[in-house]
Specification:
Chains: A alpha+beta (117), B alpha+beta (475), C alpha/beta (423)
CATH architecture of the largest domain in chain B: 3-Layer(bba) Sandwich
CATH superfamily of the largest domain in chain C: FAD/NAD(P)-binding domain
Radius of gyration of chain C: 22 Å
CATH topology of the largest domain in chain B: FAD/NAD(P)-binding domain
Number of helices of chain B: 13
CATH class of the largest domain in chain C: Alpha Beta
Oligomer: heterotrimer
Structural class of chain B: alpha+beta
CATH topology of the largest domain in chain C: FAD/NAD(P)-binding domain
Helix content of chain C: 10-25%
Largest sheet of chain C: 7 strands, mixed
Radius of gyration of chain B: 22 Å
Shape of chain C: globular
Helix content of chain B: 25-40%
Largest sheet of chain B: 8 strands, mixed
Number of strands of chain C: 28
CATH superfamily of the largest domain in chain B: FAD/NAD(P)-binding domain
CATH class of the largest domain in chain B: Alpha Beta
Number of domains of chain B: 3
Strand content of chain C: 25-35%
Number of helices of chain C: 8
Strand content of chain B: 15-25%
Number of domains of chain C: 3
Structural class of chain C: alpha/beta
Chain lengths: 117, 475, 423
């Protein structure tokens, strides 16, 4: 499998012996975690935008602070579709906490102060 | 009750409207599309032909010869760029040299000035990139280039400024004879008019049929074109025609008035009157054929391709006449090449028909022949630029990066009579989005400006015609 | 003579995207204070602002950021350092004497004399016209980046059923974005037998959503009078010629084009700067100086990068070199040797190495022409092998970044040539 953690895109080989997984081809520790997750509970960082009113910007970009269950991405999108914010919003500020009871926050990825794009 | 209804907002209809707006008449111009100049007129070579080519004695020959010299005054009144760059018709064989000689003689018969046969050395001196096999050429110095939609939009705008009503998105569905004129039924109400002038392009036959079965047929004949980046406009200095043969007229290679290079058209008789899609075979053919007249056609520098339909009549000549038995109904049909060149003369010819049909023409005291062109910011001197920005800061904001078109120019194009209402409408008026990125950077900004100026939602802004929505909704 | 508002700066940086920001910041940190950065858009950050996905910053920040986050790091630093910048300002010309002419609505025409200039205008997308795809000309055909701006910045959807032509990264990212926003992406169509974008994007943008990737296919016709109604696709052979009998129609209301990026060098050409025919960017030496003395270039205006981190590194070098130039640490007349692409290498940047330049190690960016499984990059001087670097995978879609210690370069003179090949 190809690691998607970073743009390097390592080619990983995973072998399983019961619950013990062996990962080869990874250039860093995160690759190993990714490979095992991919077989047990695949996760992805989800990025999108939410509505922001009262600013020259109309959309504020956001992301899940941690990788999020891959199978629930569309559920997350419909929650994000209902969010409306007002400035000021600081980058890193949680826009949604513990979204869909995953324990994961959705955070702003851009600062939006009043009257400034 | 209108005095005159003009059906069709192409170059012919708009020229007639503009020439009639100097008289004290109630004139309405009906156009079914979202904008004027949006069919045959917009997909055209933009050549003002010298007139050596048309068969002597035809209306084509007569009106081409008359039309060509009329452009200088008209273009200067309307602020439309015209470049008299001359044309070269090239010959590569002795047989073709013979054809050129016949064309030269025909030109003399047609009364064309500044026509000469030149030898290979002269051709190469004035056109360094001409094909190496070229043996000689027919130089026609009076040939020129214009921007056909810029011209037509300016004509419609000037007519509108002088009181002509322009009804867009209005389709004629019925024509009935009444006692003192005609009743025109449209998809948006009916119109009564003493005179009707049909300038309906490829649909001239269908319009005539609404009143009475047509005595002519119009076959749409499609031609594909390729436009190249402005960096390539200097490849040729003249309009380069190939020597006509039994196989056809070949394709032309020309700079455009804005400095691009244009290659085309091929010729394909098609059935459908609204299919203006290009074809692989058509594009390949014009690129291959053009390489026979000019060396180094920069195939990789193409920025867009397009196709247009010529309104080819089965009579072989323009059909400009009052319909027999239908006083006051005038057909202006079969206006294929050299229709653009002939168009001012066609307008005058139609006015003569109206006069002989009993229309009384009184000149309007307040007719204003001048249409102020939209400022071309990047072409101005530094001082002019500064003055313009001081008066209106929107001229200091460049929206189209490729052509350096400012927000001031775009807003001006929208606020005028017969102004831009669509992204392509803006493009045809001020060239924003016509450059090498083809609107990649500026289209979002132009949508925003159109929405603001027209007080619409961005999702309602169209690319060009009805239903050509760009955005499918908010996210 | 009040036409122009005149000003003088040590350094003028053209473009406020990642390249321009990094160059300006680096110049300031290296002791040049009178810097002006010019940006034509309404905000700084360039194309990063619409790249809301993550994957930026692995090398530079050692963590994974989204485009806006990566940009904000630099914008904050620029502001903290007090570097002057102008938004909504279009540069109309750069002259060889390093005068920059620009315009904006507030100040009108500006004429700025600089001691050095950094070109960081980025790139633009190839269009349908450049591919000469026949058919009608309906609404609904967008370059992927334009669609990305409309969706991510303006907040509008561009269609409901899409085909994406080209498998460049922006196209792949937009396939996922459109899908998450409720559109159906019917296919990504790629003419080459391998994808144009990063492997990880194939996995997380296409495979995750079961979007088919049709390699060795192309779009041959476009249908729809007003709005796009469909496209015809065909298979192509190894010479990229269509195979008769393979034509099929895909109904869609949207086509996104991700068919390549072109460095935007109109200003460079007007300034008389020499371009590389392959990269379509200025020919630069290892200090990122162009053929015009004191005019430097960095980022996508030089060659199209796949990773912004490399843009940042390259731009920092341009910023430092501009400082050296302004402070006259470098001689304009250094001996330069050529760097050329060898076997199956498409291009190498920089194209020149200045032997008398500042004492830094050499870095080269290059792209492979073909796909290689287990190959070596070989650096040679006048045919003499001087360094070999093993690579497990080499694909045209992934730019290679290699370093060469200055002391590893044998003594040579102006007539020498450095070449990099894949064997």
């Amino acid at each position: 499998m190809i690691c998607v953690v970073c743009p390097v895109g390592c080619h990983l080989r995973v072998s399983a012996d019961g619950d013990v997984y062996m990962v080869e081809g990874n250039q860093c520790g995160r690759g190993k975690v990714y490979a095992i997750n991919e077989l047990t509970n695949p996760l992805r960082t989800v990025t999108s935008t939410v509505k922001i009113n009262g600013s020259p910007m109309t959309r504020l970009p956001v992301k899940t602070k941690q990788a999020f269950p891959k199978g629930r991405m569309l559920e997350l999108m419909s929650v994000l579709g209902k969010v409306e914010l007002k400035p000021p919003v600081k980058r890193g500020q949680a826009v949604l906490k513990n979204v869909l009871d995953t324990g994961i926050d959705v955070v702003a990825t851009k600062t939006c102060l009043d009257n400034r794009v | 009750m209108y005095d005159i209804t003009i059906i069709g907002g192409g170059v012919t209809g708009c020229f007639i409207a503009r020439q009639l707006c100097r008289y004290d008449l109630e004139v309405v111009l009906i156009e079914k599309n979202y904008d004027v100049a949006n069919e045959t007129t917009k997909a055209n070579s933009g050549i003002i032909h010298s007139g050596y080519d048309a068969r002597p004695g035809t209306l084509k020959a007569k009106l081409n010869t008359l039309g060509n010299p009329m452009f200088d005054e008209i273009c200067s009144e309307l602020g439309v760029p015209l470049k008299r760059i001359g044309s070269l018709t090239i010959a590569k064989t002795n047989k073709e040299m013979g054809t050129l000689k016949k064309l030269y003689e025909r030109g003399c018969t047609n009364g064309i000035p500044q026509l000469s046969l030149i030898d290979a050395d002269v051709v190469r001196r004035i056109e360094p990139n001409i094909h190496h096999q070229v043996k000689g050429a027919l130089l026609a110095e009076t040939a020129g280039i214009v921007d056909p939609f810029c011209l037509t939009i300016a004509l419609a705008e000037n007519a509108s400024d002088n009181g002509t009503e322009v009804k867009l998105e209005t389709r004629i569905v019925g024509i009935d004879r009444e006692k003192d004129g005609y009743l025109l039924t449209t998809d948006g109400g009916s119109i009564r008019s003493r005179y009707v002038i049909s300038c309906a392009g490829v649909y001239a036959e269908e319009i005539n049929d609404l009143l009475t079965p047509s005595h002519f047929k119009i076959a749409p004949r499609k031609g594909d074109y390729v436009v190249f980046d402005k960096k390539t406009g200097g490849l040729v200095n003249h309009v380069i025609f190939q020597c006509p043969s039994e196989k056809g007229k070949g394709v032309l290679v020309t700079p455009t008035v804005h400095g691009n290079l244009l290659v085309g058209p091929d010729s394909e008789v098609v059935k459908c009157k609204d299919d203006v899609s290009t074809t692989r075979s058509g594009l390949d053919e014009i690129l291959a054929t053009s390489a026979k007249s000019v060396e180094g056609i920069p195939v990789g520098m193409a920025i867009t391709n397009f196709s247009g339909l010529r309104a080819t009549p089965d009579t072989g000549d323009f059909i400009i006449e009052e319909l027999k038995g239908h006083k006051g109904f005038i057909n202006v049909a079969g206006i294929e090449s050299p229709g653009l060149t002939a168009s001012p003369a066609i307008a005058d010819y139609v006015i003569e028909i109206l006069k002989s049909s009993g229309l009384d023409l009184k000149t309007k005291a307040d007719f204003n022949p001048i249409r102020e062109p939209i400022a071309e910011f990047i072409e101005l001197s530094d001082e002019e630029k500064s003055t313009l920005i001081k008066a209106n800061p929107l001229y200091g904001r460049v929206i189209c990066r490729c052509e350096n078109i400012t927000e001031g120019e775009i807003v001006d194009s929208i606020r005028r009579n017969v102004g831009a209402r669509s992204v392509d409408g803006v493009k045809r008026r001020v060239r924003a989005g016509m450059g090498r990125c083809q609107g990649g950077f500026c289209a979002p900004r132009i949508i925003e400006i159109l929405a603001r100026e027209l007080q619409k939602n961005a999702c309602q802004i169209l690319k060009d015609e009805k239903d050509s929505y760009i955005l499918s909704g908010g996210i | 003579m009040t036409t122009y508002k005149k000003a003088c700066y040590d350094l003028v940086v053209i473009g406020g995207g990642p390249a321009g920001l990094a160059a300006a910041i680096e110049a300031k940190k290296n002791g040049i204070h009178h810097i002006l950065l010019l940006e034509r858009d309404r905000e700084l950050g360039g194309i990063l602002q619409q790249c809301i996905h993550n994957g930026f910053g692995i090398h530079v920040f050692k963590k994974e950021l989204t485009g806006p986050e990566y940009a904000e790091n630099f914008i904050d630093e620029l502001r903290d350092l007090g570097i002057e910048y102008k938004l909504d300002t279009m540069v109309l010309g750069v002259h060889e004497n390093k005068t920059v002419e620009a315009v904006n609505p507030q100040e009108g025409l500006l004429s700025i004399q600089a001691k050095a200039v950094v070109l960081a205008m980025g790139c633009r997308e190839r269009t349908r016209g450049a591919l000469n795809i026949p058919g009608s000309r309906p609404a609904g055909i967008f370059t992927a980046g334009t669609a990305q701006r409309l969706v991510n910045i303006e907040g509008y959807m561009v269609g409901k059923k899409a085909v994406i032509l080209g498998s460049g990264d922006i196209g792949l990212i937009m396939a996922r974005r459109m899908t998450l926003e409720g559109a159906k992406v019917e296919a990504v169509v790629e003419m080459m037998p391998y994808p144009g974008g990063l492997n990880r994007n194939i996995v997380q943008c296409l495979d995750d959503f079961d979007i088919p990737l049709l390699l060795s296919h192309t779009v041959v016709n476009v249908y729809g009078r007003n709005r796009l109604e469909g496209v015809d696709i065909m298979k192509v052979d190894k010479d990229r010629q269509v195979i008769p009998g393979t034509q099929r129609r895909i109904e869609c209301d949207t086509m996104l084009l991700s068919v390549g990026l072109i460095p935007e060098n109109e200003l460079s050409v007007d300034c008389g700067i020499k371009l590389d025919a392959v990269t379509q960017g200025p020919i630069v030496d290892n200090s990122m100086e162009t053929s015009a003395e004191g005019v430097f270039a960095c980022g996508n205006v030089v060659h199209v990068h796949d990773l912004v981190d490399f843009v940042t590194e390259e731009s920092r070098r341009a910023g430092r070199s501009a400082v050296d130039y302004i402070q006259r640490k470098t001689t304009a007349t250094g001996v330069k040797i050529k760097v050329v692409p060898g076997e199956t290498v498409r291009y190498v940047v920089p194209q020149l190495v200045n032997l008398d330049g500042p004492d830094m190690d050499f870095e080269f960016f290059l792209r492979s022409r073909d796909v290689h499984d287990r190959a070596s990059l070989v650096i040679s001087l006048d045919g003499q092998k001087i360094k070999t670097i093993r690579k497990r995978y080499l694909v045209p879609g992934e730019m290679q970044h290699i370093k060469l210690k200055r002391k590893a370069l044998p003594v040579c003179s102006g007539g020498s040539t450095l070449s990099i090949s894949i064997v």
